Amino acid sequence: LGVVPSLEPLPVSKRPNQVMLIYGNQDGKFVPISRYISEAVNKQARVFYFHHEDEAIVREGLTKNGVSPRQHMLKGSLRLFPLGSLYQSEGIMDEEAAIESCQEFASETKALGKESLKIIIDYGEYTKRPSQKFVEHLTDKRWTGPDNYVSVLMAFANTAFQGQENTLR
Question: What's the predicted TM-score (pTM) here?
Answer without folding.
Answer: 0.83
